């Protein structure tokens, strides 16, 4: 008997062909989506979906008119009905994030699971390039992970610090290793030392630096520090004052130089705690913390003396940072360095409409998220929706270029 | 700018499909420095394969494999993909090796390194390395082992709701089950069945039945994710002859389009039943290296029309891909004969043929290393070395060009939005 008729004819055209390149990319690589065989001039929605490690679903979509090849420049946001205040962060970076890209007929904004699916493909997004080695580090009491690029040679090093949320966050260091840097992700707030004896002191960071410096595959004279948020405070402190840590250059994202000079991490946190009353809660019950460090003091004992810096410094700030006064701090740092005569070391990248969490490219933007700081649990507003994709892309490539250009590497990054 | 920076080598994309191009870039070299870029792969069969090119960096200290000239090595000239297609077994390896991935669920891992100097580069430590993955299966493609109705093979299904066009994928007289091409086809949106129709060494003794292949075709057609009107056949060598036989004689199945690599219209199934195996070894010629040349066996078979498929009965589009230096089978002569016969009955418009100069018999997916002669198990444990032909560079060009053309051919005939009736 003849096989049953199973051809499906739709308005869009039977046997649509959807392809995405690359199908397995690093998270900072652009992708290209091509749809073929649609009937001319018809409306389609291209939709991206993934399920995060913690089980939450994220989606993005774009509306198109067919008969054109196109690229998706949407962004991932939580599906309506999901738990509010989500932030997409990958913990197991040795496996990819799997994203399903689908095509639906017509222009829709919601209810995708109820729509007729015309075609879909699967793509993988990786934080680690093949051959990158992940090495947990407990030497010297550290809670850290070292990522080494493939190969037997030596690499410049990056000491990678996140912010007040703590934990050992690996994905950015993994990505840097995928670009040729030996990168050490360091937990300095929720680490074993802190659990056992309390907040770490300067020696902890100096130990981390030494571990990198003395590693046979790291170029000891080419080590940089990268800090976000509270990580900026540590980076500036070490870059400015440490006798042990000699940085080739430093990158500070969304942070401030305001801190008690000569103080420990504990002292820095106490300064925030002391000013906590300056935080306020907006109509949406989101906590705005930027005032904690405002106004920027003129008193020299209350801010890292960046006029003493001898290495290059890149400041990346979002002008709509609601969490830290990073923009105001950058302006003040510039002024200090102008007065001290070392402003030639400074580069400031300031993004209008960008918020606090400036992450690797194509990460979903989170306007606000649940934030568990050391000791508290609260929702913090982190910034306005914006041209996130472009911002991220330029951020990681500017960071790389900065690291490369300042004698870690000479490298021309195309694209 | 300070000197004495470490060279860095990068590959983009670092994870790619086997048929995708990549670019290899070396930076931070001294200017005008002689270097060697080398690729290395350790195969499933535990052999070491390598390719290399000798370069001279420009005054920015850069070597771009995509743009710069290789002065020699396993490839020369401006060859962006030379590090893959010119791969050969390292000196000291066993003879007659062929690189074929068995496990398609894992990538082919290639290490790409840069060394200082040209001659004797291997004696030094590499200046920098990168690792790149080459995949046969795109994410989301499903792999399903088939053992149904006597049919043995592996089915690959693209991600998505379907329905998809289908392809029956058949290799040649070497036998066995080879999944990599079907996996690639599925990665391009076709439900593809890699079919095993005899085991290696059974070329002369296998008991093949027409019905076996019809059943295989039906398995694809009947699959819920396949559009039953859009199923084609891709066959290489003996697989080519089976494809043409099915298209000409089957009353049960009608392929929508056929691609024959190594044009072969001997009636494989008929011949086997009447003679003592497919290959009359007494007619084989051996060259100065004791490699078997079988093309004259095919020429002899062509002289008797009863050995040939009546191609004039075929009603679907056919694409013939042949190598002009095919030493194993007279593909060009057979393509000539097929062309003439189709022309004689007014069916020339159904036929496309592409003959590649200096290409051999084994026209594989892009960037597969070229093998001029490899081990072949004829019967039981009796192995010979068979000469396939082809010169490496033109053969590799043929592989890349033919694959792209095959994909467009299948897209045109299997993915078209016009109904089949509108074609005739």
Automatic annotation (TrEMBL), chain A:
Domain Acyl-CoA thioester hydrolase/bile acid-CoA amino acid N-acetyltransferase: 28-73, 76-139
InterPro entries noted in UniProt: AB_hydrolase_fold (IPR029058), Acyl-CoA_thioEstase_long-chain (IPR016662), BAAT_C (IPR014940), Thio_Ohase/aa_AcTrfase (IPR006862), Thio_Ohase/BAAT_N (IPR042490)
Active site: 229, 321, 356
BAAT/Acyl-CoA thioester hydrolase C-terminal domain ranges (all copies): 201-375
Highest rank taxon of the organism: Eukaryota
BP terms from Gene Ontology: acyl-CoA metabolic process; fatty acid metabolic process
GO molecular function, one term: fatty acyl-CoA hydrolase activity
Family: Belongs to the C/M/P thioester hydrolase family.
PANTHER family: ACYL-COA THIOESTERASE 17-RELATED, ACYL-COENZYME A THIOESTERASE-RELATED
Protein name, per record: Acyl-CoA thioesterase 19
Organism: Cynoglossus semilaevis
């Amino acid at each position: 008997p003849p096989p049953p008729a199973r051809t499906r004819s739709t308005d869009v055209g039977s046997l649509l062909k959807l392809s995405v390149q690359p199908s397995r990319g690093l998270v900072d690589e652009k992708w290209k989506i091509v749809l073929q065989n649609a009937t001319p001039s018809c409306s389609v929605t291209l939709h991206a979906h993934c399920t995060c490690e913690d089980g939450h679903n994220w989606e993005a979509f774009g509306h198109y008119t067919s008969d054109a090849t196109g690229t998706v420049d949407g962004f991932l946001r939580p599906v309506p009905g999901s738990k509010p205040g989500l932030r997409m962060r990958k913990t197991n970076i040795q496996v990819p994030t799997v994203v399903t890209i689908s095509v639906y007929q017509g222009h829709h904004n919601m209810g995708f699971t109820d729509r007729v699916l015309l075609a879909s493909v699967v793509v993988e997004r990786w934080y680690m390039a093949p051959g990158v080695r992940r090495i947990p580090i407990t030497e010297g009491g550290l809670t850290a992970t070292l990522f080494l690029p493939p190969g037997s040679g030596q690499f410049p090093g990056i000491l990678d610090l996140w912010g007040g949320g703590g934990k050992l966050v690996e994905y950015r260091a993994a990505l840097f290793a995928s670009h040729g840097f030996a990168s050490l992700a360091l937990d300095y707030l929720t680490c074993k030392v802190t659990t056992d004896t309390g907040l770490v002191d300067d020696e902890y960071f100096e130990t981390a630096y030494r571990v990198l410096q003395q590693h046979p595959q790291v170029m000891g004279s080419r080590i940089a520090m990268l800090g976000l948020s509270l990580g900026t405070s540590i980076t500036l402190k070490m870059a400015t004052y440490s006798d042990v840590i000699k940085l080739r250059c430093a990158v500070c994202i969304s942070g401030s130089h305001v801190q008690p000079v000569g103080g420990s991490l504990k002292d820095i946190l106490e300064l925030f705690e002391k000013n906590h009353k300056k935080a306020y809660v907006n109509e949406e019950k989101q906590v705005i913390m930027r005032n904690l460090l405002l106004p920027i003091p003129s008193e020299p004992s209350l801010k890292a003396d960046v006029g003493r810096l001898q290495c290059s410094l890149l400041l990346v700030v979002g002008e709509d940072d609601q969490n830290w006064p990073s923009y105001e701090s950058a302006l003040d740092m510039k002024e200090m360095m102008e007065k001290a005569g070392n402003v030639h070391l400074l580069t400031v990248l300031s993004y209008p409409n960008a918020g606090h969490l400036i992450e690797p490219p194509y990460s979903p933007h989170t306007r606000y998220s649940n934030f568990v700081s050391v000791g508290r649990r609260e929702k913090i507003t982190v910034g306005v929706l914006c041209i996130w994709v472009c911002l991220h892309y330029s951020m990681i490539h500017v960071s790389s270029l900065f690291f490369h250009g300042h004698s870690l590497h000479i490298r021309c990054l195309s694209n | 700018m300070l000197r004495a920076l470490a060279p860095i080598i990068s590959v983009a994309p670092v994870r790619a499909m086997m048929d995708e191009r990549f670019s290899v870039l070396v930076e931070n070299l001294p200017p005008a420095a002689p270097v060697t870029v080398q690729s290395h792969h350790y195969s499933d069969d535990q052999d070491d394969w390598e390719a290399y090119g000798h370069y001279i960096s420009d005054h920015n200290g850069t070597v771009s494999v995509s743009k710069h000239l290789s002065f020699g090595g396993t490839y020369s000239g401006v060859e962006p993909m030379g590090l893959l297609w010119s791969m050969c077994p390292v000196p000291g390896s066993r003879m007659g090796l062929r690189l074929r991935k068995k496990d398609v669920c894992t990538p082919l891992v290639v290490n790409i390194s840069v060394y200082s100097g040209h001659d004797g580069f291997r004696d030094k430590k590499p200046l920098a390395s990168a690792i790149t993955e080459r995949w046969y299966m795109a994410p989301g493609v499903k792999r399903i082992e088939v053992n149904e109705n006597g049919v043995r093979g592996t089915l690959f299904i693209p991600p998505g709701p379907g329905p998809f066009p289908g392809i029956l994928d058949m290799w040649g007289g070497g036998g066995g089950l080879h999944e990599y091409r079907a996996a690639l086809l599925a990665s391009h949106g076709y439900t593809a069945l890699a079919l095993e129709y005899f085991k290696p060494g059974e070329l002369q003794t296998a008991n093949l039945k027409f019905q076996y292949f019809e059943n295989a075709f039906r398995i694809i057609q009947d699959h819920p994710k396949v559009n039953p009107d859009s199923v084609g056949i891709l066959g290489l060598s003996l697989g080519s002859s089976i494809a043409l036989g099915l298209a000409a004689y089957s009353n049960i199945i009608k392929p929508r389009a056929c691609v024959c690599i190594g044009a072969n219209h001997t009636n494989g199934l008929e011949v086997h039943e009447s003679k003592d195996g497919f290959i009359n070894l007494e007619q084989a010629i051996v060259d100065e290296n004791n490699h078997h040349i079988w093309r004259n066996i095919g020429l002899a078979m062509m002289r008797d029309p009863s050995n040939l498929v009546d191609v004039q009965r075929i009603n679907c589009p056919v694409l013939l891909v042949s190598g002009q230096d095919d030493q194993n089978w007279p593909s060009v002569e057979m393509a000539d004969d097929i062309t003439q016969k189709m022309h004689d009955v007014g069916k020339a418009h159904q036929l496309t043929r592409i003959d590649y100069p200096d290409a051999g018999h084994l026209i594989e997916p892009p960037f597969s290393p070229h093998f001029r002669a490899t081990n072949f198990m004829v019967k039981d444990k009796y192995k010979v070395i068979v000469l396939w032909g082809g010169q490496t560079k033109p053969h590799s060009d043929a592989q890349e060009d033919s694959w792209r053309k095959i994909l467009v051919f299948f897209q045109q005939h299997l993915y078209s939005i016009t109904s089949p009736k509108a074609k005739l």
